[in-house]
Design goal:
Strand order of the largest sheet: 6-5-14-9-10
Structural class: alpha+beta
Helix content: 25-40%
Number of strands: 23
Radius of gyration: 34 Å
Mean pLDDT: 87
Distance between the termini: 76 Å
Number of helices: 12
Strand content: 15-25%
Oligomer: single chain
Length: about 550
């Protein structure tokens, strides 16, 4: 489609490619908001990248970047797409079809990635393909806008000036007449057209038309992106959470009151109740699912006598239980912060499973998140009397969208990867020898009971403290067992028992504090906990994979 001889400057070609890519992405996001958010090319490709990433590298990403790992990956993919789109613009300098072909290839990559996502459908190819089509059309239009026919500037008065400036040769004798002094061409001069252009002069670069077109293109990209955000239901979820807050019933079984002294209120010590905004987040969702409670359902099937399907209204009509439970991620390193304590409200999962009628050979609950993630929970743990919930509220509020709104699973005593499914929509009753959950397939242990652990919060690693008495404080946890003792030692000396805060039950972490006397210099402080079964942490250091980290947490401080 480029005309012979025309080549826009490299910067202009790259700009055209970038704008075309932005329009492609915006249109794709808009279509995905209608079809399926997970079918967005950026989300689908990001998910495919994560699926293809070795488990060790995923673990490194979680440890290094925490809940920022997915935004960083998405940002990286968008940046790469921007550079590649600029490259497509450079290809279009020679021929628009080359740049359009590049966009088409990227559209196909996005479409294939979308089809590989869990619960994908044939319509999931539309966002990538329609986005690529819109990008190719935009690139073509920008290339056309970036050039004008030079003849447009040699018509009318310009043509007359061109004719008047024409120098003629008189009488074949070689005498030349200067057009600047001549009123016009000689009457006997051969006739010539008013415009004479060839080669590169046929078309000229038009900076102003290109820049105005680029601004319009970026406006379209922004408008489609905003439209995608509106259609994806982000605003609706905010309103839906507010509506749920008004409809939440009082618990049929209230939680035990948090006893006085549960929170030692030491500056720098993690509070007993973790605020929702500070609660850790680890999941595979690149886009937080926007689920309308009015359309949400939970299907329970598989090795049951009577499959059950619950609506959100059905769930709220059930007797709701309130409980304080600490959740922990298996990726938590010794001394890590992938842990939080909250007050949850929900229906007992065991009661729902009894109504469905568990078969004798069932030993696993394969729960499925709206984003396709799966979790394998041992049946016996859920049915042993602990407060395993289908939770609808967290710390007195409807679940935040990032923490599973409208419904998530909460099972005390198990690491989150086998217990805490967010945005849960399905529970298949099955067996461990028949089904494999997401992280189990990546090499993690299938059942994931939480290991007894403790952490020093105060002072912090590398802090400078005063010589003499120093307060050391932190938290310890052994969910569904409880913490019976915490001990601290300095520089490998004798263990000294710490003071324990009160707790409402065995499913939460427990604060502790101790006074140590520090001489001038550097000191190593260690902590260990003993749970209610009599088990005491060992100094053997093991990484989180495959079933949780072990070892003492220690810090180094300087007294002076």
């Amino acid at each position: 489609m480029n005309r012979e001889g025309f080549r826009a400057p490299a910067w202009a070609a790259a700009l055209m490619g970038f704008v075309a890519g932005a329009v492609a992405l915006g249109v794709a996001q808009l279509v995905a908001a209608v079809v399926n958010q997970g079918a967005s090319p950026v989300v689908a490709v990001s998910g495919a990248v994560v699926d293809a990433t070795p488990a060790g590298l995923k673990e490194w990403g979680i440890q290094t970047f925490g809940s920022n790992d997915k935004p960083l990956l998405v940002t990286g993919i968008v940046v790469v797409l921007a550079f590649v789109a600029g490259g497509f613009g450079l290809l279009a300098r020679s021929r628009v079809a080359y740049g359009a072909a590049g966009l088409a290839v990227f559209g196909l990559v996005g479409a294939v990635a979308a089809l590989t996502r869990p619960e994908s459908g044939v319509l999931d190819v539309l966002p990538s393909l329609l986005g690529a089509g819109a990008g190719a059309w935009t690139l073509s239009r920008l290339v056309r806008r970036s050039r004008h026919d030079a003849g447009e500037f040699h018509s009318g008065g310009a043509a007359r000036e061109n004719v008047a400036a024409w120098t003629t040769v008189a009488d074949g004798a070689g005498d030349r007449e200067d057009s600047r002094t001549s009123p016009g061409p000689r009457a006997d001069a051969p006739a010539r057209p008013p415009v004479m252009l060839a080669g590169a002069a046929l078309h000229e670069f038009d900076r102003r038309r290109l820049l105005t077109g680029a601004v319009v293109g970026l406006g379209v990209a922004g408008a489609t992106g905003l439209g995608a955000r509106v259609l994806s239901g982000g605003t609706n979820v905010v309103q839906a959470r507010q509506d749920v807050m008004k409809a939440l019933p009082r618990p049929a079984v209230p939680a035990r009151p948090i006893p006085a002294g549960a929170d030692l209120r030491i500056p720098g010590l993690a509070p007993f109740v973790t605020p929702n905004a500070d609660f850790y987040r680890v999941d595979t969702a690149f886009v937080v699912p926007a689920i309308d409670p009015a359309t949400w359902t939970l299907k329970i099937h598989g090795l049951v006598d009577r499959p059950v399907e619950l609506t959100f209204a059905d769930l709220l009509k059930r007797p709701l239980v309130e409980t304080d439970t600490t959740l922990t991620c298996v990726s938590n390193d010794v001394g890590g912060h992938y842990i939080g304590n909250a007050r949850w409200l929900g229906a007992r999962l065991a009661d729902v499973l009894r109504e469905a009628g568990l078969r004798r050979d069932a030993d696993m609950l394969l729960s499925v998140s709206r984003d396709g993630w799966t979790c394998g929970t041992p049946v016996d743990v859920v049915m042993d009397g602990r407060d395993a919930l289908l939770a609808v509220a967290m710390n007195g509020q409807a679940l935040p969208a990032a923490h599973g709104f409208p419904v998530r699973q909460v099972v005390p005593g198990l690491y989150g990867y086998v217990s805490a499914t967010k945005w849960v929509t399905e529970i298949r009753v099955t067996r461990f020898d028949q089904d494999v959950a997401y992280w189990t397939g990546e090499g993690w242990a299938p059942k994931g009971p939480i290991k007894t652990q403790s952490r020093i919060d105060v002072p912090g690693e590398g802090d400078n403290v005063s010589v003499g008495p120093t307060t050391v404080a932190g938290v310890a946890w052994a969910q569904h067992k409880g913490i019976d003792a915490v001990e601290v030692r300095v520089d490998g000396g004798a263990w000294r028992e710490a003071k324990l805060a009160a707790v409402p039950g065995p499913d939460t972490w427990r604060q502790w504090s101790a006074e140590v006397d520090l001489a001038q210099g550097r000191h190593k402080i260690e902590v260990r906990a003993t749970d209610a079964t009599g088990y005491t942490q060992t100094p053997v250091e093991e990484p989180p994979a495959p079933d949780g980290a072990t070892g003492y947490h220690s810090i180094t401080v300087r007294a002076g």
